[in-house]
Design brief:
Layout lengths: L1 H37 L4 H39 L2 H16 L8 H14 L3 H17 L9 H11 L7 H9 L9 H23 L6 H23 L2 H29 L4 H18 L1 H16 L2 H15 L10 H6 L4 H15 L4 H12 L3 H11 L8 H24 L1
Helix pairs in contact: 1-12, 1-17, 2-7, 2-10, 2-11, 2-12, 3-4, 4-5, 6-8, 6-17, 6-18, 8-16, 8-18, 12-15, 15-16, 16-18
Amino acid sequence: MLRRKLIVESIGIMILNYIWIGLILIAVIVGIVQFFAFGQTDIFSEILNSTFSSAKSGFEISLGLTGVLSLWMGIMKIGEQAGVINQFSRVVSPFFTRIFPELPKGHPAFGSMLMNISATMLGIDNAATPLGLQAMKELQESNSDKTKASNSMIMFLVLVTSGLTLVPVSIMTYRAQLGAANPADVFLPILLATYFAAMAGLISVAIAQKINLLDKVVLGTLGGITVFVGLIIWGALSLPQETVSKWSGIIAAVLLLAVIVWFVVAGMVRKINVYDAFIEGAKDGFKTAVGIIPYLIAILVAVGMFRASGAMDLLVRGMAWLFALCGLNTDFVPALPTALMRPLSGSGARGLMVDAMMQYGADSFVGRLVSIVQGSTDTTFYILAVYFGSVKIKDTRYAVVCGLIADFFGIVAAIALGYIFFH
């Protein structure tokens, strides 16, 4: 387990290392151009001052996360010990046996995969990663070519990269810390966006692997979810935007309160010490909030330099110009840096999300949109590198392509839903 953790950390640091260096160097280069070509003599002072203000903001945000993150990780720990993950696993088991046809019924990987995806859906990332790595190990044991990704590995990882989440704890936590009036108002759009990402990824892999999507269990499951999502979107489109935003917040509040009550009642039924479970999870939340301080400061400093140099404005204006040529509304463009970073680095995308909310406001259209984009999918390249690397897979076949298809549809859906709910 320690070796796997080191693999995760080293790959994540390597990816983010190049992004971080690139942001700083581009900021300095653009600053030099601003100084010599446009005579902006104070540009270097502005870039330097941005490092101090960004570092201060990163510390204050991270410190402020401790309360909300401790609360939700405490609630999630109750659900984990109460067996909620196992309940999710039993519900989706019939569907999973159809989309992993090469695995025999009762294969040990089913349990780990189901629990990994269930933990991800409930926002329990600390539990999801080790379960996912365990699933990859079990899948590798039945893989005939130990250096080539099996069909089951690809399906599993594309579903993981779609990031289907029922409770986006971290995003709501950041929104609360940055002053959102209702941090949960993005809950419903995020849920819908991750649905589109997951569907796109699943269908693309199913086509490549010739999986029968017309099987009655598969068709019934996907069809039922699609109809439900379609009704939500139809209702959102038929109501005034203010009403949609209002009801999104109400539904989110009711569902999240229902999750809390469900977990507590489940814990009572299982006769666990609910209070102790909450305290255990809350301690993990506190450690997590404190632990991200250096990471958030690092990325916010680099993004702050990038913004202070004028590079971010150039990037946004360039993209706005391109989309304007196509006759599109360009209000979503400031959220695109977060969207472009999302498949590459979770920490980088999180930093850009926080930066956008600080720049435009947590309750602005951009502030809400970057939150939806951040929750619409997961970090594809990071996940594929970590999970395949843990079992020494060299030939990933079409996993990257299908993962990026899921990302694309998730991000496009996030932007569209942002307009439907909040524009």
